[in-house]
Specification:
heterodimer; A: 97 residues; mainly alpha; Histone, subunit A; two-stranded antiparallel ribbon; 2 strands; 4% strand; flat; B: 474 residues; alpha/beta; Amidase signature (AS) enzymes; 11-stranded mixed sheet; 13% strand
Chain lengths: 97, 474
């Protein structure tokens, strides 16, 4: 893995929905390259015959009954944190210009 | 001498009417105010705490039981949702966010009479090892304010050592309870993955996030875990509590098999730290413990595994902060995509953005196998090595951190150097085993922490052993 270019950083920022300043682009190109350089150590570890671990305590398909329960709060309690509302609905900016 | 008796004693005194819950809350709020300059606490919850204290005092006066933690004040890291209180996770993007519900851990503590008096500072979204990544302020180390308290639960650790409350809650994704406990001289307990519900706690890296207590004694930490542990249908990753609970167990050290981790005592660990850990090992041997050296060869790769998995999961968990449903929302966006982008760019701090970028990279098409999948496979190797080790020893020990606390500002310009402070703690998170940091003397006047790990679901045994080690004095 070589050094990340400014274009690489800009592409990642777009995927992550981040708008970076020119200074941020430069510093992230350096810092991300250094971090990715550090994790290169993994390529030297022999993992033949091993499967990846996604869950450490061995739980599989934990489910609960699909039923409405009263947890002491409802939709109206969540409205207070909505940035914009109209007619009891969440209001967002237009999607298509 | 601590300003607070043992937690079980405080609760007994409240229940018997010797002490009132109100006086305990007032005392806690007074100490918080006196020691405000350490920036351990972001806000106090005076009204709700005093109201709850009065409710408990009324219960006691009526002859009712007020619970195992009756009237005990505590401080929650600000990534715990506390009903009706602002919860920011020390991030600008959540400034002004009022929790519409409450975390399960706090519900359980309140049901036993504990009272949340304040919210503690942290690195924003728990990303960091020093609290310097907090978007609002840096907490100072209670032993020497020129040093960091460690992180990310630095406010919680400092608060406990400053005796603002008998215990505090923290979260530990890669060492965030144990590292600040080590730097400040507190006890920090990271339970087995899934033992405490994370419902209502701001998510960081979901495959390693755990909740645990910080206190001044192992017994106090155990008293808190006893109340919080167990399955919760609001968190599908939770596991059953041990039937015997967490308060009992043999503290006898004779014949106990202890493995000193070779890689944890190697080059890179400061001489002063190693000296204190070796002193504890000598005391263990003198108490009849069977101490051997044990090597886990993949440990040097653990931090690299962590710094792939953690940012990957962070980038996913922080995807929900899009400025539409809660948190900071940019007013002048021209369309929806612009609203997402501007809200996130202004709302997130540097470290959150850095982790989102690394996570986006390692999860992106073409790199997923080389980074994320490879890291998850090395994780398997690490788990196997721990399993083998726990076939021959009951406990693995070593230092919690390679050095004492660093100076404020020393590592802020070098993110990788900051990440390296977690090098001895991340393995327990990746493997899911319980781990505790207890004070083990000082080096250059600053606290050193001894880390003890045991097999998954053996938290009770770990706590009992840690109590035994805590009692060892030369």
């Amino acid at each position: 893995m070589g050094k990340l270019s400014r274009d690489d950083v800009l592409k990642l920022a777009k995927l992550a929905r981040l708008d970076l300043s020119p200074t941020e682009i430069d510093s992230y190109a350096d810092e991300l390259s250094e971090i990715l350089q550090y994790v290169e150590i993994l390529q030297t570890v022999d993992v033949s015959g091993l499967e990846p671990t996604n869950q450490v305590t061995g739980l599989v398909n934990v489910t609960r009954p699909d039923e409405i329960r009263d947890y002491g709060y409802g939709p109206k309690d969540l409205y207070d944190n909505l940035p914009a509302m109209e007619n009891d609905q969440l209001k967002v900016k237009r999607m298509i210009n | 001498m601590s300003q607070w008796p043992a937690i079980s004693q405080i609760a007994a005194d409240v229940q018997s009417g010797t002490t009132s819950a109100r006086s305990l809350v007032e005392k806690s709020l007074r100490i918080i105010s006196e020691k405000k300059s350490f920036n351990a606490v972001m806000c106090t919850l005076d009204d709700s705490a005093l109201r709850r204290a009065d409710e408990i005092d009324v219960k006691v006066a009526a002859g009712e039981s007020a619970g195992q933690l009756a009237g005990v004040p505590f401080i929650a890291k600000d990534n715990f949702l506390v009903f009706g209180a602002e919860t920011t996770a020390a991030s600008n993007i959540l400034k002004g966010f009022t929790a519409p519900y409450q975390s399960t851990a706090i519900n359980l503590l309140e049901a036993e009479g504990a009272i949340c008096v304040a919210k503690a500072n942290l690195d924003a979204f728990a990303h960091g090892s020093s609290t310097e990544n907090s978007d609002f302020m840096t907490t100072l180390n209670p032993i020497d304010p020129a040093f960091v308290p460690g992180g990310s639960s630095g406010g919680s650790a400092a608060a406990v050592v400053l005796e603002m409350a008998p215990f505090a809650l923290g979260t530990d994704t890669g060492g965030s309870i144990r590292l600040p406990a080590s730097y400040c001289g507190a006890v920090g307990l990271k339970p087995t993955y899934g033992l405490v519900s994370r419902s209502g706690v701001v998510a960081m890296a979901s495959s390693t996030d755990v909740i645990g207590p910080l206190a001044l004694t192992v017994a106090d930490a155990a008293t808190v875990l006893e109340v919080m542990a167990g399955q919760d249908d609001l968190d599908g990753t939770t596991i059953a509590r041990e039937a015997a609970g967490y308060l009992v167990g043999s503290t006898d050290l004779s014949g106990v098999k202890v493995g000193v981790v070779t890689e944890y005592m190697a080059e890179g660990v400061a001489a002063g730290v190693r000296q204190q850990i070796e002193a504890k090992i000598d005391l263990l041997k003198a108490s009849g413990a069977d101490v051997v050296e044990i090597s886990l060869p993949s440990l040097p790769a653990a931090l690299a595994v962590y710094y792939i998995l953690c940012p990957a999961e962070v980038s996913s968990n922080l995807g929900r902060y899009d400025g539409q449903r809660f948190g900071y929302s940019h007013k002048d966006a021209k369309d929806l995509t612009d609203s997402y982008t501007q809200s996130r760019s202004i709302g997130f701090g540097r470290e959150a953005k850095r982790r989102i970028m690394v996570g986006t990279y390692v999860l992106s098409s073409g790199y997923y196998d080389a980074y994320y999948k490879k890291a998850q496979t090395v994780r398997t190797k690490l788990i196997k090595e721990f399993n083998v080790a726990f076939e021959t020893v009951d406990f693995l020990i070593g230092p919690t951190a390679p050095d004492i606390a660093f100076r404020i500002g020393e590592n802020v310009k070098d993110p990788l150097k900051m990440y390296l402070t977690d090098i001895l703690t991340v393995a327990a998170n990746l493997v899911g085993v319980p781990s505790i940091s207890i004070p083990a003397g000082t080096s250059q006047g600053m606290p050193v922490g001894l880390q003890i790990m045991s097999a998954q679901r053996s938290d009770r045994k770990l706590i009992a052993f840690a109590k035994g080690v805590e009692g060892l004095t030369s």
